[in-house]
Amino acid sequence: MISPVRQNVFERAANTPALSARELALLLCGLDLRLKTAAIPDDLREYYDVWLYMVTRQIRAAGLQAQGKSRQLYPADEMFALAHLMTDEIITPGPIRVRCLQAVTTIASQNQARNWLMRLGGPPLLELGLTLRRNQRGQYRKTVEQENTDRLLFLLILLLVKNSRGSYGTPESPRLAGIWRDIRTLAECEGLPAEGLSRITIYGKLKSALAISRH
User: Fold this and answer.
1) What Å distances lie between residue 16 and 5, 33, 196, 214, CA to CA?
2) Is the pLDDT of residue 23 over 90?
3) pTM value surpassing 0.70
4) Which residues pair with 74 in a beta bridge?
5) Are 9 and 17 a contacting pair, CB within 8 Å?
6) What CA–CA distances, in Å, run from 85 to 5, 89, 103, 122, 184?
């Protein structure tokens, strides 16, 4: 993680654990959350007023509970999530827009996600959150499938090496060049296309399989 002293003001703000409505409105405007109201530039004051009004109303509609002794600070994930549909691609800084989307993704993966997403942003936020959750599950399945494929390939390499009487090296140091050449030769003999059987591709897959844990 990058040190806070090397982050810009919006990257630091994205890591804050709690926010007030005023601070969130300032961030949406692309302003430092520590800025005094009187110091808000004239050309952004109208935007600030609009965002503060919208954020305040959404907090009340969602029934968010303030944290700690301060009655003005609310959990960051909930605040950034409710602000996601309010962000402006030009005015709102990139780190804040990214943080808002991350907050939606986080809430979508939790218990009672549907209820929370509806409270924080209605049907549009619910639809987005459910889409993000499906994508996460799809990526998880792809990761598991890849791990299973690597494990199977690892075992096939070991089986090949152990039954080759040394021509493919040892289980500790397989001869990938020999395996690759024979795979290409076998493909030609069987009339199979060479697509996906280049040296780089095969080496990459074999090395990925050999990198898995044996324990």
Assistant:
1) 14, 11, 47, 41
2) yes
3) no
4) 19
5) no
6) 30, 11, 12, 10, 53
